[in-house]
Specification:
The complex is a heterodimer. Helices cover 33% and strands 26% of the residues of chain A. Chain A is of the alpha/beta class. A 6-stranded mixed sheet of chain A has the order 6-7-8-3-9-10, with helices on both faces. Chain A has a 4-stranded antiparallel sheet with strand order 2-1-4-5, with helices on one face. In chain A, α3 crosses α4 (111-124) and α5 runs parallel beside α6. Chain B is α+β, with helices and mostly antiparallel strands. In chain B, 29% of the residues are buried. The chains are: A alpha/beta, B alpha+beta. The interface between A and B is medium-sized, with 21 and 18 residues. Bound molecules: adenosine-5'-triphosphate and magnesium ion. Magnesium ion binds at residues 41-42, 86, 162-163 of chain A.
């Protein structure tokens, strides 16, 4: 599903965020990515949904080399991926419903389907009753569940979650993790970054340790450390 | 593909930032008003020039000693010219009678005893351009029996030149205001794009096409332009009504009488034209601004 071949990412200011990363993720896999702050976790995620191109090497998603995408193909490529962004949060002047519906508007869904799908996904994350609220009336955990709902409302085959547990405490964060696992069990390929080792231990999924832009270690799923 | 969503977003742009919306509306209306006045002026210039040209005629004063047969020969010769569309022969007696209409002048002529006025031929030309009229008058002067010929072409010519100058001023004013309005609108859109940069980034990250992101801003520009057109038309109408009211009250001039006969349809065309021009301006400005802001 996803392959990285000798990927280097150097930002405009000459900072090397990723160095010679090689990676293979199969369809349906659940992969956790961890490492200290600044290790390059977000950079890795952004390369997958082509926020930018690698300065060197190849990133292949599905059968598609992302560097070969024409600019006008990029939006359609992104619609097949659900993303929980680390830094872009919800829009605070829209309701919960409207925040999630935005994805389907972008894809030109008819409004009847939008209502149906958004209600279904809000049900799934347990927020149906808050659908007309604005995000600032929600708790941190609830907000993060809306963000997740927005990422999965169009049922993408690939879900990228960059720090979806952000600054949540363990039990609210675990709620989000359980939803991710549910997605994975339904066949979605999931890549999730976190710097919280508790989640890594409890999830027991394949884990990639990044440090200073390089893969330092990999651990297979189900082994307890 | 235009969806309801884009219109809702455009509506949000129109309603959310009241002051920015008013500023851009003001800028568009001002420049459209200048454009409107320019068009009205243009229309007025044509009417005025027509009016002045209508009165242009070449008059040839004839030698008193001319024999009748010679006069007839001259008239026939003039009539034969392809330039001439109308001709009137006024005898000395007719001139005197015309002259005597004014009691003061009559007393003056009576005092003279004899009729001092020459016979004349008044000629309407097909083309009343200044050059043509002057050329014809020169030709007329060389004919035997013609003492002198005069024409009023100079007035029309000077008036035309003056109005052309006024029109040039109008064009410069309109162009300046239009450029300023486009500049203002483009900057306002940049502000609005900036205020929504987060929303724009998110929509792009979840797979919005460039046109989807631009859509609301383009619709906003179109609507603002059309509203500007209506505003400009309304203001011009108000100013006109005010002017004609005071013109009638203070100097008893009926400005309304100057209006062309089919004024209703002209007004409709004018309003629609201003709306269309405004929409083009708004669309152009927003294309300019979002093109700069949302480059891939
Ligand atoms: N747009 C950018 N321009 C320049 N440098 C950047 C940019 N984005 C990230 N970096 C740098 O690249 C490095 C890796 O950043 P990245 O966001 O991938 O780290 P991370 O592992 O996600 O960290 P965190 O756990 O804090 O989210 C950091 O040192 C960061 O300063
Ligand atoms: Mg990060």
């Amino acid at each position: 599903m996803i392959r990285f071949h000798n990927v280097h990412m150097t930002y405009a200011d000459e900072f090397k965020a990723l160095k010679d990363v090689n990676l293979k993720i199969a369809q349906g896999e659940f992969v956790m990515v961890t490492g200290p702050s600044g290790a390059g976790k977000s950079t890795l995620i952004k390369l997958i949904f082509r926020e930018f191109l690698p300065t060197q090497g190849q990133v292949i998603v599905g059968e598609q080399n992302v560097a070969k995408l024409k600019p006008r193909q990029v939006p359609y490529f992104r619609r097949k991926i659900g993303v929980v962004f680390q830094e872009f949060n919800l829009l605070y002047d829209l309701t919960v419903f409207e925040n999630v519906a935005l994805v389907l508007h972008v894809m030109h869904y008819p409004s009847r389907m939008i209502t149906k799908d958004v209600n279904r996904v809000l049900d799934k994350v347990g927020l149906s009753h808050k659908r007309q609220q604005k995000p600032w009336h929600l708790s941190g955990g609830e907000r993060q569940r809306v963000v997740l709902a927005r990422a999965i409302v169009h049922d993408p085959p690939l879900l990228l979650a960059d720090e979806p547990t952000g600054n949540l405490d363990f039990s609210t964060g675990w709620e989000v993790m359980r939803l991710l696992r549910q997605m994975s069990e339904a066949g979605t390929t999931v890549i999730c970054t976190t710097h919280n080792l508790n989640f890594i231990q409890k999830m027991r999924k394949r884990t990639i340790f990044l440090d200073k832009g390089m893969i330092r270690a990999e651990r297979d799923g189900l082994k307890v450390c | 593909m235009l969806s309801n969503f884009l219109f809702q977003e455009a509506l949000r742009l129109l309603l959310n930032r009241k002051r920015l919306n008013l500023i851009s509306l003001g800028a568009i209306s001002m420049s459209l008003m200048a454009l409107g006045l320019l068009l009205v002026l243009q229309f007025g210039v044509f009417k005025l020039v027509d009016f002045v040209e209508e009165k242009v005629e070449v008059v040839a004063f004839l030698n008193d000693q001319m024999a009748d047969a010679d006069v007839q020969a001259l008239l026939a010769k003039i009539r034969a010219s392809s330039q001439v569309v109308g001709l009137e022969y006024h005898t000395k007696e007719a001139a005197l009678q015309e002259f005597s209409g004014d009691p003061a002048l009559k007393r003056f002529v009576d005092a003279l005893g004899a009729n001092p006025l020459p016979a004349s031929v008044r000629i309407q030309l097909r083309e009343k351009t200044a050059d043509n009229v002057a050329y014809f008058a020169t030709w007329l002067n060389e004919q035997p029996g013609v003492e002198e010929s005069t024409y009023g072409g100079g007035d029309a010519d000077r008036l035309l030149k003056f109005l052309q100058l006024v029109r040039l001023g109008g064009i410069i004013l309109t162009a300046t205001l239009t450029v300023a309005a486009i500049f203002i609108i483009a900057n306002i859109i940049s502000l609005m794009v900036f205020a929504r940069r987060e929303e724009i980034t998110i929509t792009r990250m979840i797979g919005a096409t460039k046109w989807f992101v631009r859509g609301p801003f383009l619709i906003w520009g179109l609507v603002q332009g059309a509203l500007g057109g209506v505003t400009a038309a309304g203001l011009m109408f108000g100013i006109w009504k005010l002017l004609s009211y005071y013109a009638w009250r203070d100097v008893s001039v009926d400005l309304e009488a100057l209006l062309p006969p089919a004024v209703e349809s002209w007004t409709l065309f004018g309003v629609l034209g201003l709306m269309a021009a405004g929409s083009m301006m708004g669309l152009f400005s927003s294309l300019l601004a979002v093109g700069r802001q949302l480059r891939e």
